[in-house]
Write a structure and sequence with these properties.
Structural class: alpha/beta
Radius of gyration: 21 Å
Shape: globular
Number of domains: 1
CATH topology: TIM Barrel
Number of helices: 13
Helix content: 40-55%
Largest sheet: 8 strands, parallel, barrel
CATH class: Alpha Beta
Low-confidence stretches: 1-49
Number of strands: 12
Order of helices and strands: HHEHEHEHHEHEEEHEHHEEEHHEH
Distance between the termini: 36 Å
CATH superfamily: Divalent-metal-dependent TIM barrel enzymes
């Protein structure tokens, strides 16, 4: 596919640390003990608000393979090898179809390519368009079979077609369908996740479609993959979402926003999104997996150099 939209149709915050003024010393021992106790309680509360770095929680750096969509179909084995050489440990798939597999490779054959390069695939984006229209779970079962064969943990809904999300009640119906699909995933030992863009944040009165999805899906069944670029693009702060729905965002898409043209991506660390601030609050999110993604490259930028640059920034700055 030549662009993300056609493919998909087929298919901020302040650090919460608290600075403490030195306790005012008095000659009264009791007052001193009271001050110490209060300071300890405040420090404990601050610790709850200011989780430690994501470093201890995130061991692998993944890439959404849509980043390499111009190259991947032409040379699956070669591209996967170079992704591994760029320092990635995990890949998130896209574009699977029951009749053609992963870029004309069966799930078993694709798993062998990953194994040969010491890569895992913990998540895959799968086309849920027809399921969201008719509720037929047959295709969901096919995705589960493929995901299990590849070794994935998450079957991820990447997009909602415009015709199934025209009003707020549509999101309630979608949430119910997600619960049904998620139960199938759980029964098979997998999990279901939902990946956002920016349309989910459109206001319907005092709420949004995204809020409905978060509230109407079973937290024990449905997780969320926060595309941080699209959250920022929608005018929100990612950590505000983390605070409001702690532990729901088990995966992230980490892609940066071009400073001159916000509709474009750039290498992580080179754009306008303050990722250091976001990563400092990672534990609020519940994040377990992160995937670098870039939907476009600058004309003069080699894609492999680009993904290596983003990976190195994540590894050496954000997770250091």
């Amino acid at each position: 596919m030549n662009n993300r939209r056609s493919f998909l149709q087929r298919l901020g915050l302040l650090t919460a640390g608290v600075a403490f003024a030195p306790s005012l010393l008095t000659s009264c021992e009791a007052a001193g003990r009271k001050t110490e106790t209060a300071a300890g309680a405040t420090a404990e509360a601050a610790g709850a608000e200011n989780p430690t770095s994501a470093k201890a929680e995130i061991k692998d750096i993944g890439i959404q393979l849509y980043t390499m969509r111009q190259l991947l179909p032409k040379d699956v084995k070669g591209v996967i090898a170079r992704v591994a050489q760029a320092g990635y440990n995990d890949v998130e798939t896209y574009g699977y179809a029951p009749d053609s597999g992963y870029w004309k490779l069966s799930p078993k054959a694709f798993r062998e390519v990953l194994d040969a390069n010491n890569l895992t695939s913990s998540s895959g984006h799968y086309e849920f368009g027809q399921y969201m229209k008719d509720g037929n779970t047959d295709v969901v079962k096919r995705y589960i079979e493929a995901g299990k064969a590849v070794g994935q943990t998450y079957i991820t809904v990447p997009w909602l077609d415009a015709e199934v999300r025209t009003k707020l009640d549509d999101y309630k119906r979608i949430a119910n369908l997600m619960n049904v699909a998620a139960q199938l995933c759980q029964d098979a030992g997998l999990k279901l996740a939902y990946h956002n863009h920016d349309f989910e944040f459109q206001k319907y009165g005092n709420t949004t479609g995204y809020e409905v999805l978060l509230q109407e899906t079973d937290p024990g069944l449905v997780s969320f993959e926060a595309d941080l670029y699209w959250v920022v693009r929608a005018g929100l702060k990612p950590v505000d979402l983390f605070r409001q729905h702690q532990g729901r965002f088990v995966m992230w898409h980490v892609k940066d926003m071009n400073k001159q043209a916000p509709e474009l991506n750039t290498e992580v660390g080179s754009g306008s999104i303050n990722y250091q601030e976001i990563f400092r609050q990672a534990k609020l999110s519940g994040v377990e997996r992160i995937f670098v993604e870039q939907e476009n490259f600058a004309a003069a930028m080699d894609p492999y150099k680009s993904i290596r640059q983003s990976r190195d920034y994540v590894k050496n700055t954000l997770l250091a």
